[in-house]
Write a structure and sequence with these properties.
The complex is a heterodimer of chains A (383) and B (109).
Chain A: E1 4-6, E2 12-13, E3 15-19, H1 23-28, H2 34-43, E4 47-51, E5 58-59, E6 62-63, H3 76-90, E7 93-99, H4 105-119, E8 128-130, H5 133-136, H6 140-144, E9 161-164, E10 170-173, E11 192-194, H7 216-224, E12 228-230, E13 235-236, E14 247-248, H8 251-264, E15 267-270, H9 273-276, H10 287-302, E16 311-313, E17 339-343, E18 346-350, E19 367-372, E20 375-382
Helix pairs in contact in A: 8-10
Chain B: E1 2-7, E2 18-23, E3 33-36, E4 42-45, E5 54-58, H1 69-72, E6 76-80, E7 87-90, E8 106-108
Parallel strand pairs in B: 1-7
Antiparallel strand pairs in B: 1-4, 2-3, 2-5, 5-6
The chains are: A alpha/beta (383), B mainly beta (109).
């Protein structure tokens, strides 16, 4: 059985997230969050990822010193409760992240306990202990020791793995699954939140990985047997840049990444510069982020939520079932990969960055039913 | 003078949507005039003597008053051979895949 998220009515939940890191910070200081809610509704975002504190201080997008230790403000807990109630009323889930920087173990534990004590009163909340704990020096296992989760569905935030490279040295999987056997597995709770690798990203394409590594959570699902989501892929911005805080402006690459995540895994989170700042992208000054999110939203409507429960298929692994014609030398895709999920008589497939002149042609009894407008490499087939 | 009426699929007027006028086969970016529909979903362009025919581009840009029109309606372009005719354009509602979430999630392994 494929691990999945299940709603109370038994339906499969597909993760259609949006980064909204500073949204509670804005809410706490009295700003309206109506625009952000409206934006998420318009796109079909069903879960927002929100930071409960940040060590960022003064930034080009505001002074967040008050949010370094917001729990010291008597208004903090009432604010968190009002914030989560607003999301409950709006029908959007929240993934609040308790810790975003290294802090004393006891302090981190107390903050996390406080979050779970609040979260148990709000059914739409699925907390995360820490953001990128391997980067931020947070011992999530130590933090969670003794924390009462009250049965609230949660994830730790760890994803760092260490495997054995062919030469016997350590292969550190920072955002990807290294070669087995594993020497280190991440600390896990109910589900995992993988931040797919981005350090290689140099626009334009300098690697073949980003347009197809939305599949990476599937490696973690297969290895660890719990759902993993693509929780913070390379962000969308108005100007591309690499390194920490990498930003991408190429929707063709991004569509490949996110479509594959939604074919094969519970889903992904729209990570944007605006969302990092706790804002909806401004259509006038941030047209690229706006358009990229709208395109991904159209893909969400194209691929059903439960697609990740289908049979995994790719050209060479399953040549008798892969639904699209595929050249033996893998030249149909500039990144030389394609994936499909087969659900009985229906299939959804993605050929990221197809070659010039590529056309979707069904094989193995499959017929092309529809192609995503503007992105014909995202295909729905029937047989 | 061409009266342009912008409607949704139920026939309701769409207000504040951007309508751009370009010469035939020119893109929205190369349009030479842009107007926004009024509360009745209408706008008008005087017929200039620039070209024998034109292209109208609807909802390719954003009005500061309404931020989500482009997410709500699919942009639409229409060739217009005669700018003296009244024109009705129906925009396709992109809808929303949003269904309110209810109740706690659990994991099934």
């Amino acid at each position: 059985m494929t691990p999945r998220f299940v709603r109370e009515d038994g339906s499969t939940f597909g993760w259609r997230g949006a980064t909204m890191f500073l949204l509670h910070a804005r809410f706490m200081r009295g700003e309206s969050i109506d625009d952000q809610i409206e934006w998420m509704h318009s796109l079909g975002v069903n879960i927002a990822r929100v930071f409960m504190r940040v060590p960022w201080g003064v930034t080009p997008f505001g002074d967040w010193r008050f949010y370094a230790q917001p729990e010291r403000d008597a208004n903090y807990e009432p604010s968190v409760r009002a914030f989560l109630q607003r999301f409950t009323d709006e029908g959007i889930r929240v993934q609040p992240v308790a810790l975003t920087d290294s802090s004393q173990m006891s302090e981190g534990r107390a903050l996390t306990q406080q979050l779970f004590d609040i979260a148990r009163d709000f059914e739409l909340v699925t907390p995360q202990t820490a953001n990128e704990p391997n980067v931020n020096g947070i011992d999530t296992k130590g933090v969670m020791a003794g924390v009462n989760r009250h049965g609230v569905l949660a994830c730790a935030g760890d994803y760092l793995t260490v495997g054995t490279a062919p030469d016997g040295s350590d292969e550190v999987g920072d955002g990807f699954m290294p070669s087995p056997p594993l020497k280190k597995t991440p600390f896990m709770l109910d589900y995992g939140d993988l931040h797919t690798e981005r350090s290689w990203h140099q626009p334009p394409i300098s690697s073949d990985r980003y347009p197809r590594n939305g599949k990476e959570p599937l490696e973690f699902i297969s290895t660890f047997g719990i759902p993993w989501v693509d929780g913070e892929p390379v962000g969308f911005g108005e100007v591309p840049h690499a390194g920490s805080g990498a930003r991408l402006t190429d929707i063709q690459q991004a569509m490949g990444h996110h479509a594959i995540a939604h074919l094969l895994t519970p889903g992904s989170t729209l990570h944007t510069q605006a969302g990092l700042e706790g804002r909806a992208p401004d259509p006038v000054s941030e047209p690229i982020q706006t358009a990229m999110c709208e395109d991904i939203s159209r893909m969400w409507r194209f691929i059903p939520e439960s697609c990740y429960l289908g049979q995994y298929s790719r050209p060479h692994l399953s040549p008798d079932t892969f639904p699209l014609e595929w050249r033996a030398d893998d030249s149909d895709s500039l990144v030389k990969h394609a994936y499909a999920s087969i659900l009985g008589s229906e299939a959804y497939a993605c050929v990221p960055l197809p070659r010039d002149g590529w056309e979707a042609k069904g094989v193995n009894g499959w017929t092309v039913e529809r192609q995503l407008d503007g992105f014909p490499f995202v295909v729905h087939l029937t047989r | 003078m061409a009266q342009v009426q912008i409607r949704d699929q139920r026939g309701n007027p769409i207000t504040s949507v951007a309508v751009r006028l370009a010469t035939e086969h020119q893109s929205s970016e190369l349009a030479y005039d842009e107007r926004f529909t009024d509360l009745a979903g209408n706008t008008a362009f005087p017929a200039p003597a620039l070209a024998p025919s034109y292209t109208l581009h609807v909802n390719y840009t954003d009005d500061c008053c309404r931020r989500n029109l482009r997410a709500k309606y699919k942009p639409f372009s229409l060739g217009v051979p005669n700018l003296n005719d009244d024109i009705v354009i129906v925009l396709e509602d992109l809808g929303s895949s949003f269904t309110p979430e209810v109740g706690a999630l659990r994991v099934e392994k």
